[in-house]
């Protein structure tokens, strides 16, 4: 799904860029004609020749006559082009001076090449999605390339049978796979475990990977989500902004709800959270929820119907081990 408002805005930008380019082109043309008057004549003649070629293709001469005519026109065209080239060479003005006016010379600021989106268009969409995601700055540091397993202990504990490092390696692999298969499989994930075990970091890794594939992602903390819902109900200011945001909770390709805890819970936020989780499942739109609560606390805090939807449909991943933020504090390498 592409966000139509974003696409519309980008197309408007292209329109503006084309108008600017057109003006610039006229100015440069005049500038060049002023310096080399013969060029104006050549351009006029070239325009005539191409008109003649089109005409001759349509006229009723016999084949032989037509070919002869077209050949002579092509010859004329060739000679004019040659003369033009020499004039440019002698003047020292670059040959593409008039044409080299676009932000993107590949698509001439139209955004399209043969009905396909140009790379510059795709990049603009990615940039817009980054802005929209709410975590643009963080993603420069927090991504799969910067993930450091060294912060995780290799010591196995009795309770979990595997070490935190083995566990995080498994989760890391799972998350990478999740981004690769995102378009085909629509899995939702619950990350749970104490804070400082890398949950938010991995949310960000996933977000960046998808944004770079121009897939829209929205990150929100749970308390921010609840606040938005509450503002929407009770505060009519900025109504349209809130509407759009809530609409995105329901329709964005990937929604990340970070830090689901005990804050801001009331019957309204519970109901809205259930609706978001439920509708996204029905629409096959993945959601990632991360929480510091244990599954038991989650069950005690949230309604049963929320829990049963998550337990039934989400992949549940448990983060354990030491608080890596403490380790991070004493080392200079990136986590
Ligand atoms: Zn382009």
Description of the molecule:
- With 335 residues, this protein is of the alpha/beta class.
- It folds into two domains: 4-117, no CATH class; 134-329, P-loop containing nucleotide triphosphate hydrolases (Rossmann fold, 3-Layer(aba) Sandwich), CATH 3.40.50.300.
- Helices cover 58% and strands 9% of the residues.
- The protein contains twelve helices and seven strands.
- It has helices at residues 4-35, 37-58, 63-91, 119-133, 164-180, 199-211, 222-234, 239-251, 267-282, 295-301, 304-313, 324-329; strands at 112-113, 116-117, 188-192, 217-221, 254-260, 287-291, 314-318.
- Helix 9 (267-282) links the parallel strand 5 (254-260) and strand 6.
- The longest helix is centred in the first third of the chain and has 32 residues, at 4-35.
- Mean pLDDT is 89; it is low at 330-335.
- Residues 104, 106-107, 118, 120 line the site of zinc ion (ZN).
């Amino acid at each position: 799904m592409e966000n139509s408002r974003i696409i519309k805005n980008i197309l408007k930008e292209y329109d503006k860029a084309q108008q600017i380019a057109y003006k610039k082109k006229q100015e440069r043309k005049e500038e060049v004609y002023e310096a080399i008057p013969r060029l104006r004549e050549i351009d006029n003649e070239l325009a005539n020749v191409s008109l003649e070629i089109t005409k001759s293709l349509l006229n009723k001469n016999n084949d032989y006559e037509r070919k002869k005519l077209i050949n002579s026109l092509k010859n004329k065209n060739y000679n004019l082009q040659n003369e033009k080239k020499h004039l440019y060479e002698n003047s020292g003005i670059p040959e593409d001076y008039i044409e080299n006016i676009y932000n993107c010379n590949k698509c001439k600021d139209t955004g399209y090449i043969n009905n396909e989106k140009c790379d510059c268009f795709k990049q603009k969409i990615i940039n817009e999605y980054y802005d929209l995601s709410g975590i643009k700055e963080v993603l420069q540091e927090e991504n799969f390339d910067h993930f450091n397993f060294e912060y995780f202990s290799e010591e196995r504990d009795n309770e979990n049978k595997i070490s935190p490092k083995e566990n995080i390696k498994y989760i890391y692999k799972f998350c990478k796979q999740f981004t690769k298969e995102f378009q085909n499989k629509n899995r939702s994930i619950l990350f749970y475990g104490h804070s400082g075990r890398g949950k938010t970091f991995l949310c960000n890794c996933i977000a960046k990977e998808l944004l770079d594939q121009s897939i829209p992602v929205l990150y929100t903390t749970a308390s921010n989500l609840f606040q938005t819902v509450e503002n929407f109900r009770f505060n009519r200011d900025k109504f349209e902004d809130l509407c759009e945001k809530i609409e995105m909770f329901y329709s964005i390709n990937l929604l990340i709800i970070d830090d689901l805890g005990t804050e801001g819970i009331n019957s309204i936020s519970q109901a809205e959270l259930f609706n978001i989780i439920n509708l996204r499942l029905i629409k096959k739109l993945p959601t990632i929820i991360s929480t510091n609560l244990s599954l038991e606390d989650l069950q005690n805090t949230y309604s049963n119907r929320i829990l049963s939807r998550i337990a039934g449909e989400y992949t549940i991943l448990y983060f354990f081990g030491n608080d890596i933020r403490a380790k991070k504090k004493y080392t200079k390498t990136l986590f």
